## 1
Amino acid sequence: MNRFGYYDPTSVQKAVGIAADKAEGRYLAGGQTLLPTMRLRLNAPTDLIDLGQIADLRGIKVDGSSITIGAMVSHAEVSRAAEVVSKIPALAELAGLIGDAQVRNRGTLGGSIANNDPAADYPAAALGLGATINTSKRKIAADAFFKGLFETALSTGELITSVSFPIPKKAGYAKFKNPASRFAIVGVFVAQTATGARVAVTGAGAGGVFRVKAMEDALAKSWSPQAVRGILVPAGDLQSDLHASADYRSQLVLVMAQRAIANAA
Amino acid sequence: MNDVHVKDKPDTKGKTATAPAAKSGPLGARIERKEDVRFLTGAGQYTDDVALANQSYAYFLRSPHAHARIRGIDTTRAKAAPGVLGVFTGADLPAAVGGLPCGWLITGTDGKPMKEPKHPLLAQGKVRYVGDHVALVVAETAVQAKDAAEMIDVDYEALPAVVDVRQAATKGAPAIHDEAPDNVCYVWALGDKAAVDATFKHAAHVTTLEFVNNRLIPNAIEPRACNALYSRHDDSYTLYVSNQNPHVERLLMTAFVLGLPEHKVRVIAPDVGGGFGSKIYLYAEETVCVWASKIVGRPIKWTAERTESFLSDAHGRDHYTRAELALDKDGHFLGLRVQTSAAMGAYLSTFASCIPTILYATLLAGQYTTPAIHCEVTAIFTNTSPVDAYRGAGRPEATYVVERLVETAAKETGLAPAEIRRRNFIRTFPYQTPVALQYDTGDYDACLDGAIELADVKGFAKRKEEAAKRGKLRGLGFCSYIEACGIAPSNVAGALGARAGLFEAGEVRVHPTGKVTVFTGSHSHGQGHETTFAQVVADRLGIPMDDIDIVHGDTGRIPFGMGTYGSRSLAVGGTAIVKAVDKIVAKGRKIAAHLMEVNDADVEFRDGKFSVKGTDKNVPFAQVALTAYVPHNYPLDKLEPGLDETAFYDPANFTFPAGTHICEVEVDPETGETKIAAFTAVDDFGNIVNPMIVEGQVHGGLTQGIGQALLEGCVYDKDSGQLLTATYMDYAMPRASDVPSFQVDTRSTPCTHNPLGVKGCGEAGAIGAPAAVINAICDAIGVKDVEMPATSERVWRAIRAKA
């Protein structure tokens, strides 16, 4: 691990200020991706800006139509939070499926969304629920936020402060885990929202998390596992790697979608 | 350890005709492991816990290429880097320093010895796999050593690489060693080919299978590590190393590589966190550290990083096999014909050559009377980490061949899996197989019947039906394995090419107060010897477990040792201890006879007391011990003082554990995901000293076997030769959640040629499980074969290909 500066500001404003000041400063949330890559010398930021002391990035709030979760809330907290469990059980379940207990205790919502790992779980929930990503500068719709593999709409130094998830009528998540890493080989989040049915897929896309329009249209007509029968995402749009080929992922997207629909609550 | 916990609950498992019936005393008791207190409370002393005064740190620069010529290495910048004490490359090694030796010479079918290209301690001229050791950097800190290693400029000329054992010996494949231009190390065969071919001519049915036995990465929880010290005080070396057999390590290192006087090198393998075979071998890293420690004038410590372990530990398996079984019309096996290509990796590791030969082809009779067997093995170099023994070592591969064939033959001939086995079981012992081994004893029906009952095979049809209602496919798979433990005797092994002995040594030192220290050449890296061996000694000497300490893993304290591998420790190492104990008792009897003024022949030893036969006159063991060391009233004219005996034991034969495993799987046809619904193992390990430890060994072995069958697959990129599964993100190790709560039981036919009647249990699980799992999957989805690891995608594809 290379040498780096370390800061632990107490406000979003201070954190953003320090980041602006540094050549290659990086925000440190749960550190579940950043720290291992630094240890493997794949990443060498000049400075780490630890977000752990910023109270404004914590907490879970419910208003009438949505739940807003602070960027520094851990996966474990989300999986157990009574308001999440009661209002969006699929989101709590998704958080409980991330990694292992250690990862869930350290890893954060904001860190996961900002990293946009193509096999991470949270992007599927954010896109599947049509969430709004609140940052130090603005509000970004999930549909405009996820740009590709590890790429987001965040500009340099922009910090995610919280994510607002609209409370759906029903939502479900089904995940087919990589048996080694426990990342999603395919994860499908489905939701019946005020604006219609949404289906978001993680783990499978050649360009990261994506929506399946054909399934959404079918679900708009009839919310049932049978409704999406035969709707296969073309293998050409999907990832092929050591763990799964594109056509297997295509099959899994369908199966996971059907299971998510069946389990939606 | 002050107290020993014996579970109150009587042992309800392992009820057999020969099990000691409700015997009190330590033998056969579920005694909790003495060593676990220190392991579980952080008091273990592993190599990385050893801090030597003024120690420095090593980092190895490794090859990023699978195959490349080294045009030049410039270490100037690295040598000038902060904290650097020395940088060494292959060019710095004196000419007298040899390559790493291979301990078993295989002679090919052409009558020529196997090809043994030099395995240099640091690359010389070429690198041959990703992770090949190129340079050693020694620095004040581990980070400084790593930083400096990044400043070494190696000018590589990349060469084409070949990583697949099926490709490496084909025409046009790149030559890895000049000595073996076709990449063939040897072609070896066992059995009567003409006799086998003849059986196929009049066979009523032939079952044929072609399959991969997947390459596995060992993954001991403690990575390899060493700390090497040179002492000017007496011109000696001390090496702490995470290793399974420190005496062998020392012998190979001093006599074959560094040319150091053996008596000037002490090798200590302290607590070792798992080996599974991967720590049997002499590796370059610790050898270079020993050599460099004198030059640097500081102790040198090295601990592998996890990915370094993935890249550089000797791997296991990696076979490609075509196998055919000839049967008569009644399902009797007539002949077995096997051709195997076995990867050796880039260099020959310490015992690489004997794994796919001596420990593989000899096991192909399995539990059956197959009269004619022939096996041809081609050992092939590949641009990968070397391949050597890994839990089971040859025997899982042999079992996989036999038991996949047998189960497939059952399906093809319409016989039930149990019935086809029963029709072919060996039932008279000793039994001479057509592949060199002579089984001393066994009762294969007992384990099969026991497993069928425990697995509730009768209820399977109902469970399958119930699963089908949930849209799931249930399958049942059998595996009746045989294994050979405690490879021996030395002279026979020597005639087969072994370059080492296969005995074991034990010393029993009785202290003046009657306390006992046992020095064993066996090594424990998780097996629980400190408990099991103490149980054996406590039973024989009639003294408390707490009065006995077992010492292992130190060439400075132990007379000699061949270490622990091949499930040999209790059968061979335990027997050496028993023989030393017997000498103690024999001498003690003479001392006691003198004290009681009777003839030696009138003294018997029981329950820790020497007594005059037929009387209540006796002397306790401790008094005899004290007399031996304070020999005032002592037959000094006839007997030496002291009570300390050593024995070396070279077994007359292997031991032959056997058993039947039954796996029940449930496959999700939509995803191909396979869950182990139940796993039953009924094993015959001969007599059992500690059933709890045996069950633990079985559980661990089964988990590794299930790992091989479902999850673990080492993958090198076929073009670049890069290891794609070099972290736990990509290499799937089995977790507790991947296995069911095992149902295990034992039957016993005691080994006929060691005094304990024990056989060995460490590897059985890993040997039997893979075939049982794959047989179950094939049964569930109705296909002939699924390649290991049977990942969800492979199973899904197999279902789809069928439909």
## 2
Amino acid sequence: MHRKVKKAKLKEDISPNVVPMIDIMFLLLLFFMLGADMSQRESIEISIPKAKSVPEPKQIEDKEKRTLTVNIHHATPTGAPCPINDNGAICREEGHWQWQILGVDYSREEMKKQLLLLAQDNLDPVEDPVAKKKLSALFLLIRADERAPYGDVQKLTEYAGIAGIYKIQLAANKPLPEK
Amino acid sequence: MAGGGEAEDNPLPINVVPMVDIIFCLCVFFMCSFKFRETEGKFDSWLPKDKGEGGPPDPGPLQEMRVIITWDQTSQKTTRQYLHKTVKDDAELEQCIRDAHEDFLAKNKPDIPLTIDGGANVPWKEVMAVVNIGKSLEIKNLEFAMGTADAPSK
């Protein structure tokens, strides 16, 4: 009888209490779930140039403001690796720099048409007195990789101008403060 | 919060092990996909409304602060010139632009533009570096010229 009691006590002592661990894990899970960005990605992972004087982004963006983000990024047409780019050098191969909207790559001509369509869909209701025509109310945010050719940005800007999109924004990263 | 208590008090013990396993997996998934993003800002750069679509180039103002950027693919190097002077680094370029800008301000000409004249193959970061200098010096007018030819490969 005496032995049995001892055994039961031993069993009780070695069972760990997992409740605090579950509590903490729930909190961690909640933190990471809320921190995760699951929205549709307008901005792809590219290394955009750094600029100290870039203004801080506004916490609350104007809801009426419609922004079209175009990413200029390096990708070969076949998806094959590019040895020049992979070695950290600057690639200027024909067709290696892609223009992308919402995850879809467009050729130069397709982008020109796309900009025209989007500009027409977002026309300002009032005619501009300077341009003497209705311009687009759309903002065009150009997110170009820091190694992208300047010619591509120029071309994209030119197409935007032709489409009547004149509000151009250039994305840049604010460098982290030096320690 | 989940409450504690003696095991004897709980008439219906629940096996929490599968739940803990799943929470662990979820935790690992979200931890791996979590990223601290850098602050991304944007420079406003409105296109002129009163200038033509294409057509002959604008003769431009007689006075300007022009930075010419060229790119040599073979050496993978950028050359920057302020007017006719080749500049070595950002600090020297900033000094040249600052001197000229202050000079124009003294002459009551604050609208003289900083013109960035880059070749088509120049890396974007080099152009943005000049934009950054212009913005930090609070130059009102920044203009992008259609690029000159890049330096020929040797």
## 3
Amino acid sequence: MSDGPLHALVVEDSPTMRQLISFALRRIKGLEVEEADDGVDGLKKLSEQKFDILITDINMPVMDGLKLVSLVRKDETHKDIPIVIITTEGAAEDRQRAMTLGANAYITKPIQAPQVINCVKKLLGM
Amino acid sequence: MAKDEKPKKKESGGKPVEPPKAEDFLQVFKRGVQFTEELLAENERLRYRVVRLEEENRTLAQQTMVSEAYEDLLEQMKALEEERSTLLERFKSVEEETQDFKSRYREIEDENNRLANLYIASYQLNSTLDLKEVVRIAFEIIINLVGSMDFALYIADGSKLVPVCAEGRPLASLSLITMGKGSAGRAAQDRVLYVSGDDLTKASVDEPKVCVPLIVGDTMLGMFVVFSFLVQKTCITELDRELFKLLGGHAAMAIFAARLSMVTDSKVIHDASSYLKFLNS
């Protein structure tokens, strides 16, 4: 792991949820958080900067989270990035679908900040 | 007289004494040798005995030392045992303290989480005067922070509550709520939060799971009615209740303010003279 800060990208169309997730993640020492409004905005930010972890919602306008995950897994720079899905979709088949596409963790809303923090820390080996 | 013949000494009685014969001398000499050998043997035995005694003495001295060292060790052990007991007591105390800190840390974490949710919800609700945006934010809070995708906003109109916006089902499928009728009607009439004890995930329009009256001052503006919760939502938490209270107050005020802003077209906001008039009258 590098000595500099790690970078997380939060892709979430709901400003409330985006703010809540970012607020939780900013409590992790050594982690800098960037935000994107939807899948397209997320891809744009991923093309501009190297991120260490991606946290995304599924149900978003323009491009949903599952499409984003499949595209990120094909991207040379970020194909190995850990991906956390945070969604209202709690059915087992939704979880299975996300994991098959390449997500590393699946958290259902409403979220508990410690749950998100622990998940991200674990995936980043912090 | 022969040369080797020595004159016989005379005894006191005048009788001559016979000179000792060589055999006698040899006998005496042999006895002397034997005696000397016996003395040497005795000397050897005694020296051996001395060596044995010295060894015994050394062993006894060592045993005495060992015994003293044993006493010292016992004392040291006793002291160490006491020290161990003290340390164990301190360890136990520190462990209890650690548990206490852990528990307090968890409480603070929960409180932090609760406040973050409430702060963000409140901040978002009060961030705009656009009615659509305010309602969208209130819906977002119910979807993401509470955990429901099956609910509606009703606005009070006389003795009825009219559905004006819904999530998860067509607005047209919802009926009016009459004040005082059913759990939703009673919650509206009494202006109190209603939380059902039924299965949260089982959807029912007639038997809603939660009703949140929206109160502005003395007026009941309307009500959020939740028909069911997400499958992963198993219970209503304290945080949920606080979010419902926040919606009942802040969302109500935000909707009210946004509606007023629409009516006045925001003209009064930059009308300094009206502020001067009202604040100083």
